Structures are given as structure tokens and as C-alpha cells.
Amino acid sequence: MPPVRPGETALVTGATSGIGRAVAVALRDAGFRVLGTSRTPHTADAPEGVELLPLDLADPASIALLPGELRSRGLSGSADGGVTVLVNNAGESQNGPVEELPRSALERVFQINTIGQIEVTQKVLTGMRNSRRGRVIFIGSMLGSFPLAYRGSYGASKAAVRQFAFAARRELRGFGIGVSVVEPGAIATGLSARRTVYVDPDGPYAGEFTTMLRRLNRNESRGISAERVAAEIMKPVTAARPAPLYAVGSQAPLAFAAARLLPRDAMAGILARRHGLR
Ligand SMILES: NC(=O)c1ccc[n+]([C@@H]2O[C@H](COP(=O)([O-])OP(=O)(O)OC[C@H]3O[C@@H](n4cnc5c(N)ncnc54)[C@H](OP(=O)(O)O)[C@@H]3O)[C@@H](O)[C@H]2O)c1
Fold it and tell me: Which stretches of the chain drop beneath a pLDDT of 70?
């Protein structure tokens, strides 16, 4: 697969905090021109040397404006010289029992974490095909591979984007474009404070849900750093043959190895107990 090179342009969605910020810095330090995105690019704190573009994945109209934003920075979507590295990072963490998730919540999490990531990818693929090289990296979640109670909508949105990615991987291989998914475990980014929560405080799930959320937040605060995840994301950027799936944090190698050996319910039980559920 043709390499992508320093001096070329990388686009990182959600580059103002956490994993996106760390990978934007890693790409910048590796010599790429880095464009990041934010819902509030004029007031957000961009990493030094990273240009911020407006993007709200919850809003299809905002995604539609992305090609114009790229053109205004001298990047053509249809010829050589466009974006050659895309890190689909921006996402939202949603929590709630399946029975109580309103349609609006389901639409929101799939719009941001799945449809939004796919539409952003569509906007840069023509340029990558024309230059016959590129790397597209989707930031999923280990919860996309390992289901957890009360994280159904989030895990499903991440599993869905992984399936899109694996299909696109074969479609784009012949054009010199590598497609990979990076699934982080618990990462200390402060994401806990930004989770959306849908639960009836007087409903039948409230007690268990609260236990799960407390443990989830504790695991996240004890998680590995965003910089460690960024180092993992750089692997498919620099590899001659990027792998389909990378995973990091939450003892990922052990978890994936165990999943190949254990019955599904046994594996689900381990994850549930890790989150305080019996
Ligand atoms: N932290 C973890 O434990 C963990 C574990 C597994 C997977 N992940 C995944 O890793 C990715 C990054 O997570 P993080 O922990 O680094 O999160 P974070 O610190 O909350 O950062 C999220 C970034 O996405 C942007 N963003 C949020 N909502 C957006 C929207 N609707 N449209 C466009 N941009 C939006 C934010 O920028 P603005 O606010 O400036 O718009 C911010 O830069 C997400 O996809 C998440 O699901 C995280």
C-alpha cells in the first residue's frame, strides 16, 4: 500500500480534547499539516499548529459544509493535494437502559458516532482515490466488540461503524487506501463529565444503572492516557500494511484473546462484573 507522507494533510475530527487532541499533536509532530474540527472552532482551544474547522456531527447541514471548508483551506476534494489521512475521532458517550432510550437519543448517537463518521469519510474519499493513497481510521470502542449493559446504544453505534469500516476496507484497497478501526478501552480523557444519560431515576433500572455508571467513570479515571491511544492510532498511519483492527487500554490483548476462547455469556459476565454488575 502506498505510504502517506509528512507534509501531506491529515484531518482529525474532534481535535480539541482527549484522544483527538492527542492524535492531532502526534500527527503534527510527525510533520503532517493537521486540520482539526470543533463545534466551536473560534472559541475552542486548538493544539498549537492545528487549524480548526467547524463541524457538528449531530447536524447533517454542518457535515455538508465540510467540503467547502476544506476548499477554503486550499484542499481540493477531486484532485491530488487533498486530505490523505482522516481520523474519524469525534463521538459521544451515551448511557441508558434499552427500554428507556427515547428515539431522539437513538437517532442522536447513531447520527454522531456512525452516520456522521461515514459521511465525513465520503467527503474526502474522492480526493484520496484520485491521489491513489490514503489512510482512514475510525475510532470505535471496545464496547463495540464487547457488549455491556446500559451501554447498548453506544456500543451498537460503534459496532455499526466498525462494520462499515471493514466493508470499505475491501472496497478501497485497490485505490491504495487503508481503512482501520481503533477500539480504545477505558481512557482517561474526562469523557465521564460529558456523557449523555437517559434513565428514569424512579424506574426499575435506576439502582443497577447507577452502580454501572459509577464503575464506568472510575475505570475511565484510572484508564490509560489519550497520548497512549494516539500512539496506537499512528500505527495504521505509518504502517505499510495497516491492520483492520487495533485495540488499546483495558487489557485489550487479553480481552480479545479471551473472547476467542470463552462462550459469549462468560465473556459478557466478566465485563459486567468489571462494572459492578452481578
Ligand atoms: N475516553 C474513553 O474512555 C473512550 C473509550 C472508547 C472510545 N472512545 C471514543 O474516542 C473518541 C474520543 O473520545 P474522547 O474521550 O477523547 O472524548 P472527548 O474528550 O469528549 O472529546 C470529544 C471531541 O469530539 C468533539 N465532539 C463532541 N461532540 C461532537 C459533535 N457532535 N460533533 C463534532 N465534534 C464533536 C469535541 O470537540 P468540541 O467540543 O470542540 O466540538 C472533542 O474534541 C470518541 O469517538 C469516543 O467514543 C473514548
Answer: 77-81
